[in-house]
Amino acid sequence: MDEKKQARLRRSRKTRNKIAELKVLRLMVHRTNHHIYAQVADPNGGKILVEASTLEPEVRKKLKYGGNVKAASMVGKRLAEKAKKHGIVSVAFDRSGFKYHGRVKALAEAAREHGLKF
After folding, report:
1. Dihedral angle over CA of 18, 115, 107, 102, nearest 10
2. Strand partners, 47
3. The pLDDT value given to residue 46
4. From CA 14, how far away is CA 18, in angstroms rounded?
5. Dihedral (C-alpha) 57, 60, 66, 72: value to the nearest 10 degrees?
6. What single DSSP character describes residue 98?
7. pLDDT in tens, the chain (118 residues)
8. What is d(CA 85, CA 62) in angstroms, rounded to the nearest whole number?
């Protein structure tokens, strides 16, 4: 495993430990070069309550490419709308060690604009 990935995993461990202490719902983000994924999990991490990604057929119809800021903001919007339907209002943001800029930031801001609090 390269050093860049190890550093990301180290950063993610610190965040996950703090969120586990708080025992709150967790909004997890994962990104690849071509797609971005977001999920809301219960405090134990054993059950995914809501999920959205650029692989969903509804999202793919509207997007040409899933690895950009526009796609990330659309995923954030869809996730927030789905979470509201399930009665989820407040979550802790777990960016999985990814830096808070670009697509991760766009997803977070779109989710906040559409009603999620974190």
Report:
1. -90
2. none
3. 85
4. 6
5. -80
6. -
7. 899 999 999 999 999 999 999 999 999 999 999 999 999 999 987 899 999 999 999 999 999 999 999 999 999 999 999 999 999 999 999 999 999 999 999 999 999 999 999 9
8. 22
Beta bridge partners of 94: 28
- Rounded to 10°, the helix 103-113/69-85 angle is 40
CA distance 73 to 90: 18
What whole-number distance in Å separates Cα of residue 108 and Cα of residue 8?
A: 18
Question: What confidence score (pLDDT) does residue 90 get?
Answer: 96
CATH of 3-113, one of 3.30.70.920, 3.30.420.100, 3.40.640.10, 3.50.50.60: 3.30.420.100
In the block, residue with structure tokens 């993610």: 12
**Is 43 in contact with 26 (CB distance < 8 Å)?**
yes
Sign of CA dihedral 113, 28, 99, 16: positive
